[in-house]
Write the C-alpha cells for this entry.
Amino acid sequence: MKIIFGISLLATLAAAGLAFATRSQLIDARNEKDQINRKIVAIHEAVEKVNAETTTVWTSWSETKGLAKDEMTSSLKLERETKEQQDALEKLNKEIEEIMGKRAAMEAEIKSIIGRDGTPEEVLAKVEALKGETDALNQELATLQKELEVNKKSAAESDALSAKLKAQQDARTAAIQLGGRSATVAAYNPEFSFIVINMGRANGLTPDTRLLIKRGGQLLARATITQLEKNQTVADVSLKTLRAGAQIAPGDEVVFESSVQ
C-alpha cells in the first residue's frame, strides 16, 4: 500500500513538475509571442509612418509640380502680355510721332499763311477768310465748268452738224462726178435677173446709187444695188421696169443716178 502511495506521490510530483515546466514554457512562449507582436506592431507603425511620410512627400512634389506648371503658364502668359503691351506701345509711339509731325506741318503752314507765329484766334480768322475766298473760287469754278460743258455740247453739236453737212456735200460731189460717168454690163444672169459691173465703191458708187441700163440711148430697165465692193457692183434688175421685148446683154451701158439732192 505504501509502495502504491509512494508511486502515486511520485507520479503526482512528476505531473506537478511537468505541469510547472509546461506552464513555464507556455509563459515563456506567451512572453515571446507578445514581444514578437510588439515588434510587429512597431514595424507596422514604422511602415505606416514611412507611408505617411511618402504620401506627404508625394503630395508636396505634386503640389510643387503643379505650382511649377502654373508658374510656367503664368510666365508664358506674362511674356505674351508683355509682348502685346510692347507692340501696343510701339504703335502708340508711332501714332504720337505722326501726330507730332502733322502738328509741326500745321504750325509751319499756319506760319506761312499769316507770315508769323500767331494766336489761335488770328489763325481762325485767317482760315475763315481763306475759306470765304475758297468758296467764292469754287462757285466761280462751278460756273466756268457749266459754261465749259455748254460750250462742249455746242461744239459737239456743231461738229456733228458740220460732219453731216460735209458728208452730204461729199455725197453730192460724188453724185455730180458720178453723173458724168457710165459703165457697161460685165455679166448678166437672166435666171436671177442681176447684173455685174466692173465699178464699185472706189469709183464713187454708194448703196443709194440708182442704175439705169441703156442701149443706144434708150432705157432698157432700172437696177438696184445689192452688193457693193471696192471695184465691183452687183445689182438686181427691176423686171417691172424692163422694156417689153428687151433682153439685157453684156456691153449694155449703165448710167448712174443718186438719191442725194
Remarks:
- The mean pLDDT is 78.
- The CA atoms of residues 71 and 77 lie 10 Å apart.
